[in-house]
Specification:
By secondary structure, the chain is an alpha/beta fold. Helices cover 41% and strands 15% of the residues. The protein is built from 16 helices and twelve strands. Helix 10 links the parallel strand 9 and strand 10. The protein is globular.
Length: 415
C-alpha cells in the first residue's frame, strides 16, 4: 500500500543516518534500511507506547499518556468511482474497513486509547454495551483477548429473543469464539434503563466478585475515545501528496452511530491544515441528539468550539437503526457491482446512500469538490441480512457441459 510505503520511507531515512550504515554501498544500505523499517512496523503491533498529540491538538486537555497499537495503520486512501456524481466532483475513500480483520473498522482507533487506559488502571476485564450485531462489541472482545483481559458484553435484542441463545451470526460468532461473556437485555429494558445504568449494574456485580472491571461506553464514544479520530486526521494529512500536484479535501463524509468518530474527525479537521468540512449521516437517533452529544465530547477535551460550527449532521437512519429498506440493500449491491467496494448495511451503507441522495437533491453543494468518504467497516453485519438480500443477488447456474466432452475418472484433482 502506498501509505505503508510512505511510512517505510520515513523510517528508512532516519535509519540511514546511522554511522555504521554509511560505510555500505547505497544499494546495500537501502536494502538494510528497508528490512529494519519493516521489522519496526511488524513488531509495533500490540505494543503500548507513550502518546504525543499533533501540534495543532496540543492545547486540548486531558491528553492521553499512552496508546496501544491495535490497528493496521495507516489505512489506504484511493479514488472511488461511484456513478452519478455531480459535475466535476471527485470522490475518494479511506478504507478503515481494512484496519484489521477480527478487529476492524473505526472502533479499533478508539480502542487503542481506551484499552491503554484500562491497562493503566490495572483492570482485569472490560465491560461494554451495544446492539446484538454491534461491531464495537466484537472489536472490544477481540482487543480484550489480545491484551489478556476478560470481556463482558451487554447486547440489546428483541423481547421475544432475550431468553434464547443469540446464535452465531456475524459479529456474534467472533465474540463467542474469543470467549466473551454475553448478557442479553431487551430493547424495552434498554430504553427504560439506559446504557450507563446497565453497565454500572454489571460493574457493581463484578466488583463484588473481586474483579477489576473497566467500562467502555456505547461505540467507545467518550472524550478519550475521540482521540482515535483526532489522530486519524493527522494520518490523513501525512497521506496527502505534496508538491505541484498537491491534493486537498474539501469535504469528509462519514456515518454516525455513537458520536465519537465525528467528534474526532470534525475537531481534528477544524484544527489542522486539512480544514475539510465534515458531513455526518446519523444512522440512529437524530441530528439534534448528536449535536448535543458531540458538544459534550468536545467540552470534555476543553476544545472551546461549538459542534454546530464544525460538523454538518443529517439524518440517514431510514426505517431505524440496523433496519434496511429494499432500496438501501439494492444500493449496497449496485455499489459492490460497480466499484468492488462492499459497504455494511448499518453504518457506511446508509451514509453513502444518504450522501448520494443529497448529491442528487443538492448538486450545487457538491459540484467541483474533492470529497473523502470514510468507510468505517462492519462487513460482518451483512451476514445478518442474508435472507433480505437473497432476492437481490443472482448470476448463478449449473455449468452447461455437453455430453460429447470426453470424461475420465481421476483427471480432476479436488484440492
Amino acid at each position: 500500500m502506498m501509505c505503508t510505503l510512505l511510512l517505510l520511507q520515513r523510517l528508512s531515512r532516519s535509519l540511514k543516518q546511522s554511522p555504521s550504515l554509511r560505510k555500505l554501498s547505497t544499494k546495500t544500505r537501502n536494502s538494510v534500511c528497508e528490512m529494519e523499517a519493516t521489522k519496526q512496523l511488524s513488531f509495533d503491533f500490540l505494543t503500548q507506547k507513550a502518546y504525543t498529540p499533533p501540534s495543532w491538538a496540543s492545547h486540548l486537555s486531558p491528553i492521553p499518556s499512552h496508546v496501544f497499537s491495535l490497528a493496521h495503520l495507516p489505512t489506504p486512501i484511493h479514488r472511488w468511482n461511484l456513478p452519478n456524481l455531480p459535475k466535476n466532483t471527485r470522490l475518494w475513500i479511506k478504507r478503515d474497513d481494512l484496519s484489521g480483520m477480527q478487529l476492524s473498522g473505526n472502533k479499533v482507533r478508539k480502542l487503542e486509547f481506551l484499552m491503554a487506559d484500562a491497562v493503566a488502571q490495572g483492570s482485569d476485564c472490560i465491560i461494554t454495551i451495544g446492539g446484538i450485531q454491534s461491531n464495537h462489541c466484537r472489536a472490544t472482545a477481540v482487543a480484550a483477548k489480545y491484551l489478556n483481559l476478560d470481556c463482558y458484553l451487554i447486547l440489546r435484542t428483541s423481547k421475544v429473543l432475550v431468553e434464547k441463545d443469540p446464535g452465531l451470526t456475524g459479529n456474534l460468532l467472533v465474540e463467542r469464539l474469543v470467549g466473551a461473556h454475553i448478557e442479553l437485555v431487551s430493547k424495552e429494558e434498554y430504553a427504560k434503563l439506559g446504557s450507563p445504568t446497565l453497565t454500572n449494574l454489571l460493574k457493581e456485580k463484578l466488583l463484588k466478585e473481586g474483579r477489576r472491571p473497566y467500562v467502555i461506553p456505547v461505540g467507545g464514544s467518550n472524550s478519550l475515545g475521540t482521540w482515535g479520530y483526532i489522530e486519524a486526521i493527522r494520518e490523513i494529512e501525512q497521506q496527502l501528496p505534496t508538491g505541484t500536484d498537491e491534493l486537498g479535501f474539501d469535504d469528509i463524509v462519514v456515518a454516525c452511530g455513537s458520536g465519537g468518530t465525528i467528534a474526532g474527525l470534525s475537531l481534528g479537521s477544524s484544527l489542522s491544515k486539512l480544514n475539510a468540512k465534515v458531513h455526518a449521516f446519523c444512522v440512529c437517533d437524530d441530528p439534534d441528539y448528536f449535536y448535543d452529544y458531540v458538544q459534550g465530547l468536545l467540552d470534555g477535551l476543553q476544545a472551546g468550539v461549538r459542534s454546530h460550527d464544525i460538523v454538518d449532521i443529517q439524518n440517514a437512519k431510514g426505517l431505524g437503526y440496523a433496519i434496511s429498506t429494499t432500496e438501501e440493500l439494492n444500493f449496497l449491491k449496485e455499489v459492490a457491482v460497480s466499484t468492488g467496494i462492499v459497504l455494511d448495511p448499518v453504518y457506511s451503507g446508509k451514509a453513502a446512500y444518504g450522501m448520494i441522495k443529497d448529491m442528487a437533491e443538492n448538486p450545487a453543494k457538491w459540484e467541483g469538490k474533492n470529497i473523502l468518504f470514510i468507510h468505517t467497516g462492519g462487513l460482518l453485519g451483512l451476514f445478518d441480512k442474508v435472507e433480505e438480500m437473497g432476492s437481490l443477488v443472482g448470476k448463478w447456474r449449473k455449468m452447461d457441459i455437453d455430453d460429447s466432452i470426453p470424461r475420465k475418472d481421476g483427471i480432476g484433482k479436488m484440492f
